[in-house]
Amino acid sequence: MPIQERIRAEVTGHPIVLFMKGTPQFPMCGFSSRAVQALRAAGASASQLHTVNVLEEPEIRANLPRYSDWPTFPQLFINGELIGGCDITCELAEAGELARMISEAQKA
């Protein structure tokens, strides 16, 4: 499967997808760790949050910025739509928007 199709399958196959460095249990960068904490605080359970460790997926790491037009990691997608990186995820969480988005993603 071509890498762009594989990325699309990840993004559309799960309501909430976080492309990150490391795993939720062992994040390998501070930004990924903060994004996971924001998602958990906003109500995303471990079973709802699908993550892709870009350190173990070099093809995805190299090609996701072209797919999403977003240069850095982590990258959060909800219902197939790019939400943004760590700063945007944390801002949405602080504003209460992330909890609403997560709740709606579960219903979709």
From TrEMBL:
Q: Which UniProt keywords apply?
A: 2Fe-2S, Iron, Iron-sulfur, Metal-binding, Redox-active center
The answer to whether keyword Iron applies is yes
Q: Is the Repeat keyword given for this protein? A: no
Q: Where is the Glutaredoxin domain?
A: 16-83
Q: Which InterPro entries match?
A: Glutaredoxin, GRX_PICOT-like, Monothiol_GRX, Monothiol_GRX-rel, Thioredoxin-like_sf
Q: Give the Pfam families listed for this entry.
A: Glutaredoxin (PF00462)
* SUPFAM superfamilies, per the entry: Thioredoxin-like
Q: Name the CDD domains on file.
A: GRX_PICOT_like
Similarity comment: Belongs to the glutaredoxin family. Monothiol subfamily.
For this entry, the protein name equals: Glutaredoxin
